[in-house]
Design goal:
The chain is of the alpha+beta class and 934 residues long. Helices cover 32% and strands 23% of the residues. It is built from 20 helices and 31 strands.
Length: 934
């Protein structure tokens, strides 16, 4: 098959935007026809890996005897350590580069091959024919798998099978996995054998010390490994929680590799002194042994040089007085007897070497842990990784904010895992939209590290993810990408942060992890090391994946919440007034603040009414979310419609209450168990008449308004407290008060003054103080109230409406009482015409004469006394005729033969608007005309 076929196969395997191994090789400057590879003659032919793999390789050679299969073992750097051939003659026919151990097949030297690709991808790989970058290998195929140290998770080497392309066996991948597993187990057995040798050395030393009084443990050491219990019947008296504390602290002492002592406080007032000392096995293995001296109270002698609570060894740790002079620290307070004490001979027990009994100071001694320092560091690192995961569970996802969750991820990872963390997220995810392809340009959301002078792009800047970079490869593959050595990557100059390898603190190792949740890519997190000289390993990548998996799920939850919150907020804002209507009765300003935790159902409205009156309205639907916002919109629309009927405040609230009961019955009936239903709402409805300065208001479970008098005094009128809307069957009551010119009405919802962190009475007093300033405009009033009273992080929506009232001057109002006599209609027309002339409104005079003639005639004929005519000059010219009747006229189409029925049609044609409103004494029919048109 052609090379283009294998290239397309590789493209499909690694994703359309991912950098394939062949592209990586070209980025490294390699050529397919190169024949030279680095050769190392300093490799250890008897290393732990070789010893563990030798028997396995021999069995594989026997398994493939007579075939053209070859088996290679390479170390973590790609240097071939061992080779086996199914046909021995095959080795003599191949060039040395394919037969002699010592050649380096790392990808940065040899291009794409089984050993190099397995090290780069850290997984089982298969390379066929032309997928090999080097031309010399394109006639073969290979299968390779990493060999890991089960203790620390690091890749110790690679096991690789090579064979002609036509000799592939379907069971080959299973066989190579089994072989690698056997090598890994043998590596682990070597560690266990070393630990057992150290334990034997320690026990032998103590036994010799008990026999002849010689110092014990002077030439040996024990590292941290799996604890080795001895038989101590009295050990059962030690609480398991105390055992855990002692072993954790002992692990820190072993990994520190220094002789030291540390005091530990246990349960029930007991104390223990941990002593660490070196031990060497008969075969030369060096380790550390940690003993515990247990007392029932204060230690017999305190050691001022004891370890800190973190377990770090002091500069001059206190040692046993029996230690050899060559390694003893400077003179100081004596520690409890060491293992060389003849009275410290071990007894059998489960907590280590048995305690000494009947000591004069009541102390007992036992062995806690024994192991090699290197193994101790692995165990300590594993424990810290688990602690970091536990910390991540508590610290990541504390809010429903994408940006904050990404920052929490970075804060958890620094410095426990990385020195710097960057998080790049697509703009769509930040807006709460569905995640799409995260490739291309993303937004740098978080940069966090151990230093502020970092070499990364700043937060908020756009970042382009280019092909070949680990960031895009991890997104395309959906897996973490580890770059242990950035200098060998070849892509850094084209990466999102090309300056990261320069400057005073260059980074040298990287893990790129996709942020994936529910099948979508939410972005990419990059973990960098700069100060820590150790490169990232597989265990670090596993930890980074776990952290990112948790963070991605929390980010997706936050994204969905952001989307729903945005939709609910957009719906709510679309249902609130966009622009307040023009009217002259009040000067209005308003504020609306949505809750941080979710959109609520608060609303406000300003509704012009007939006769220059105006209605002010605030309300609050119980609950949050789309349902509350939608219910708010329905109530606001209904309130405007009921206001058009010129209903009194108590009647309007009654109609809203009935509507809410009906909606709740329809949406949350007994048979509809899945419906949310409507819990209820509160409302305050105010009607202000500038001709009389009367303010009529009623409330349904709502807080009363605040009234700011012209002198700056503030009071909260005692209004009848009606029930919340939605209960049904309970009455509402209207109250009326007179307000002086220049007073300000302040209507608000409970989110302004109700807060879990303060009492409502204190909040109302804060509101009173914020309002007690005469002469403020409504805009200034709203601003000062929000600044002084509103919570910093409101749990509920806040709707605020400030209205400074105006009074219509008496010279702009004319009123006449009319007797119930048709002959007096002409007099009314005449006096009205003169009044309009005095006002300078000659143009609409003719239309007003016709309107008054029709309306007064109808009042005399069909209404009852008292009859009154009133003209009001405001933004329009308003004509009102009131009578004592309760029947309202209706506009109808008159037939050609009808003698009547055309009067109201004439009124509708001559006026801009007309209508009827009811009063306690009857009704008022009104019509509005433009000031400059007849």
């Amino acid at each position: 098959m052609s090379a283009s076929f294998w290239a397309s196969r590789s493209r499909r395997a690694y994703g359309a935007r991912s950098c394939t191994p062949r592209e990586r090789c070209r980025l490294l400057g390699l050529s397919p026809d190169q024949t030279e590879l680095p050769y190392r003659d300093d490799f250890d032919p008897d290393s732990r890996l070789v010893r563990a793999a030798g028997p396995v390789l021999d069995r594989l050679a026997a398994r493939f005897a007579g075939s053209r299969m070859n088996v290679s073992l390479a170390d973590a750097g790609g240097t071939v350590l061992q080779r086996r051939f199914g046909e021995p003659e095959l080795a003599r026919s191949l060039p040395p580069i394919q037969t002699v151990p010592g050649f380096v097949f790392a990808e940065r030297f040899a291009g794409t091959n089984g050993i190099g690709l397995a090290l780069a991808e850290r997984r089982l790989v298969q390379v066929y024919g032309a997928e090999h970058f080097a031309e010399r290998s394109q006639s073969n195929a290979c299968c390779a798998v990493p060999v890991r140290n089960q203790l620390n998770g690091l890749v110790e080497g690679v096991l690789c099978f090579g064979y002609p392309r036509g000799d592939e066996d379907p069971a080959l991948t299973a066989l190579i996995r089994l072989a690698a597993g056997s090598i890994e187990r043998r590596l682990m057995e070597q560690t266990s054998q070393r630990e057992r040798a150290l334990l034997r050395s320690y026990l032998d030393a103590r036994a010799r010390a008990g026999a002849d009084g010689r110092p014990a443990g002077a030439d040996g050491a024990l590292p941290y490994a799996v604890p080795h219990p001895a038989s101590d019947p009295s050990g059962a008296l030690l609480d398991p929680r105390d055992e855990s504390v002692l072993k954790d602290r002992a692990a820190e002492l072993i990994s520190s590799t220094q002789r030291a002592a540390v005091e530990v406080t246990l349960l029930h007032g007991r104390r223990a002194t941990l002593l660490s000392r070196p031990v060497t096995s008969g075969t030369g293995i060096e380790g550390i042994a940690v003993e515990a001296v247990l007392t029932d109270g204060e230690p017999a002698a305190r050691r001022p040089a004891a370890l800190s609570a973190a377990g770090a060894a002091p500069a001059a740790a206190t040692a046993s007085p029996h230690a050899p002079p060559a390694t003893a620290p400077p003179a100081g307070p004596q520690a409890p007897p060491g293992p060389s004490d003849p009275s410290a001979a071990p007894a059998a027990g489960r907590n280590g070497a048995g305690p000494d009994r009947d000591r004069p100071d009541g102390a007992s001694r036992r062995l806690v842990l024994v192991g090699e320092p290197e193994v101790g560091r692995y165990a300590l690192a594993a424990r810290r990784r688990l602690e970091l995961l536990a910390e991540a569970s508590a610290r990541i996802g504390t809010t429903l904010d994408v940006h904050r969750t990404a920052r929490e991820l970075a804060e958890v990872a620094v410095p426990g895992l990385a020195d710097y963390v960057t998080v790049d997220v697509p703009e769509a995810v930040l807006r709460g939209e569905e995640p799409t392809d995260a490739a291309g340009t993303v937004r740098r959301t978080v940069v966090h590290g151990i230093r502020d002078d970092h070499p990364f792009r700043p937060e908020g800047s756009p970042v382009e993810l280019r092909p070949g970079t680990p960031h895009l490869r991890c997104l395309a593959d959906g897996k973490a990408v580890v770059e242990p050595y950035l200098a060998a990557g070849g892509w850094l100059a084209r990466g999102p942060d090309p300056a990261a390898a320069l400057g005073g603190h260059p980074v040298h190792s990287l893990i790129a992890v996709p942020l994936r949740a529910r099948g979508g890519n939410l972005g990419v997190a990059a973990f960098y090391r700069s100060e820590d000289p150790a490169p990232f390993a597989d265990d670090d990548a596993w930890l980074a994946r776990e952290l990112c998996a948790r963070a991605a799920l929390c980010m997706d939850n936050a994204r969905q919440y952001t989307r729903e919150h945005t939709l609910a907020l957009a719906l709510q804002r679309s249902l609130l007034p966009h622009r307040l209507p023009e009217q002259g009765a009040v000067e209005v300003a308003h504020r609306y603040l949505p809750a941080e935790s979710g959109v609520g159902g608060d609303w406000f409205d300003v509704i012009p009414l007939s006769g220059t009156r105006v209605a002010l309205l605030v309300g609050d639907v119980v609950g949050h979310g789309l349902h509350a916002a939608a219910t708010m919109g329905r109530l606001r629309t209904a309130a405007r419609n009921f206001a058009e009927l010129e209903l009194a405040p108590d009647e309007l609230l009654t109609h809203l209450d009935n509507l809410l009961v009906r909606l709740d019955r329809e949406e949350g009936g007994e048979s509809d168990t899945g419906s949310t239903g409507i819990v209820g709402a509160t409302c305050l409805y105010v009607i202000y008449d500038p001709t009389t300065r009367e303010c009529a208001m009623a409330r349904a479970g709502h807080l009363p308004p605040a009234v700011v008098r012209p002198d700056g005094s503030v009071d909260f009128p005692e209004l009848p407290a009606g029930p919340p809307l939605g209960l049904g069957g309970l009455p509402f009551e209207t109250a009326a008060i007179d307000l002086p010119e220049g007073s300000t009405l302040v209507l608000y919802t409970d989110g302004l003054v109700e807060d879990r962190h303060r009492d409502i009475d204190a909040a109302l007093e804060d509101l009173r103080r914020a309002l007690a300033h005469p002469g403020r405009t409504p805009e200034d009033t709203c601003r000062s109230v929000i600044d002084a009273v509103a919570p910093d992080h409101p749990d509920d929506d806040i709707a605020l409406l400030a209205a400074r009232i105006h009074t219509l001057p008496a010279e702009r109002i004319a009123a006449w009482d009319v007797p119930a006599d048709p002959a007096r209609v002409g007099e009314i027309r005449a006096v009205a015409t003169r009044t309009l002339a005095e006002w300078g409104l000659e143009e609409p005079a003719f239309a007003v004469e016709l309107l008054l003639s029709e309306l007064v005639t109808n009042a005399v004929r069909y209404g009852g006394e008292p009859i009154q005519v009133r003209l009001i000059r405001d933004r329009t010219l308003i004509c009102e005729v009131s009578d004592g009747g309760s029947t309202a006229p209706h506009l109808r189409r008159a037939a050609a033969t009808d003698e009547g029925g055309r009067g109201l049609f004439l009124v509708a044609q001559l006026s801009q608007a007309w209508g009827t409103r009811y009063t306690p004494r009857g009704k008022v029919i009104w019509a509005e005309c433009a000031l400059d048109a007849a």
